Amino acid sequence: MKITVAGGGYVGLSLATLLAQKNEVVVLEIHQDKADKVSNLVSPIRDEYIEKYFDEAKAGKRKLNIRGTTDYKDAMKGAEFVIVATPTNYDDETNTFDTSAVEDIIKKAISMKDNNLTIVVKSTIPVGYVERIRSEYNINNIFFSPEFLREGKALYDNLYPARIIIGDEAEKAKSFAKLLKDASLNKDVPVIFMRPTEAEAVKLFANTYLALRVAYFNELDTYAKVKGLDSKAIIDGVCLDPRIGTHYNNPSFGYGGYCLPKDTKQLLANYRDVPQDLIRAIVRANKTRKEFIAKDVCKRKPKTVGVYRLTMKSGSDNFRSSAIQDVIKYLRGEGVEVIIYEPTLNEKEFSGFEVENDFEKFTKRSDVILANRLEDKLRDVADIVYTRDLFARD
Q: Do residue 174 and residue 208 come from a single domain?
């Protein structure tokens, strides 16, 4: 069947690649260069498996029926599903996601006047969004299906999903679930059907729990740092309890990326008329951690702080909402000069900070080097590196 995927980011491109193995997939992009890259089997994002699958398709070793376009009519004509994977940034002024890009695709799909066309929202949305859209536009051919992907491993996580959640129980919803399951390599993956509102809540609560876990071990690390204790020893002892486990326990400068910062804030906003303490604390804890990191760095009295990578994890080229950006803003507020080493940037400046991508010059100019995650490249300058990476992994 023909499937349209609106948005060529981590969510959209990983789904498009997954489904293009057995279907005709058209990626609808607003940027022509990204659409062209998809058509030429060049990944516009860093993702090990997407790049691998594209390379194999170019070499004739794998079949992928995929192309990109900026023409929505071309993309949607004759499609059975339009998967919406456009970004929904959190708007701090309105205290909710900006869903304008999602709604734009929904309106375009409705304008096609194709009764066989079903809209599947993969973008993260507020709880109650689909029900509102159904009522406002008087349509039923739309449902929500949350994604649970890691940056840099998005296609892998679609190939080996932990669960498939569908926010509807209609036949087209069951058909979509079958598409995902048939394309995955985990044939025992649980498939759960529920109402769209519950599915929307699953997404926000799952990501907020992950943020809670990151914040918890960061606050443990803050305590150990202030009290002069061995943070790693404490974490090792705590995490040997099988009820706790060793995942998401490596301290960092704070949680960041596409999902956790905005999803925690959206869930907090959804609690506006519901008693709570914990959700607000998770959001606040991340701010507190970043402030602590900046103050701790300032204790070294550096004149110049070098920031090693704006990306917060290996295998990712995304630094949107990365925690280190807030840390360096705090440092600027204290009058500290900041220079950035980020090989994915061609510009000489980022948000008013100088970018220096000659690594040798970068290290020589830095009194302290901030590194959220350690890499071999930093081994020779370890004496000036500031990190809270205790396990040398994500």
A: no
pLDDT at 257: 77
Query: What's the predicted TM-score (pTM) here?
Result: 0.91
Instruction: For residues 209 and 266, state if they share a domain.
Output: yes
Residue 29's domain spans which residues?
2-194
Residue 259 annotated in active site: yes
- Are 148 and 169 in the same domain? yes
Which pLDDT does position 276 carry in this prediction?
95
HEC sequence for the chain: CEEEEECCCHHHHHHHHHHCCCCEEEEECCCHHHHHHHHCCCCCCCCHHHHHHHHHHHCCCCCCCEEEECCHHHHHCCCCEEEECCCCCEECCCCEECCHHHHHHHHHHHHCCCCCCEEEECCCCCCCHHHHHHHHHCCCCEEECCCCCCCCCHHHHHHCCCCEEEECCCHHHHHHHHHHHHHCCCCCCCEEECCHHHHHHHHHHHHHHHHHHHHHHHHHHHHHHHHCCCHHHHHHHHHCCCCCCCCCCCCCCCCCCCCHHHHHHHHHHHCCCCCCCHHHHHHHHHHHHHHHHHHHHHCCCCCEEEEECCCCCCCCCCCCCCHHHHHHHHHHHCCCEEEEECCCCCCCEECCEEECCCHHHHHHHCCEEECCCCCHHHHHHHHHEECCCCCCCC
**Which of the listed residues 194, 215, 248 is the one where a domain comes to its end?**
194
For residue 269, what is the domain's CATH number? 3.40.50.720
**Considering its fold, how many domains does the chain have in total?**
2
Write down the catalytic residue from 106, 259, 268, 297: 259
Mean pLDDT by 10 residues, the chain (394 residues): 96 97 97 97 94 96 97 97 94 88 97 95 96 97 95 92 96 97 94 97 96 97 98 98 95 88 93 95 96 96 95 63 88 94 90 94 97 93 96 82
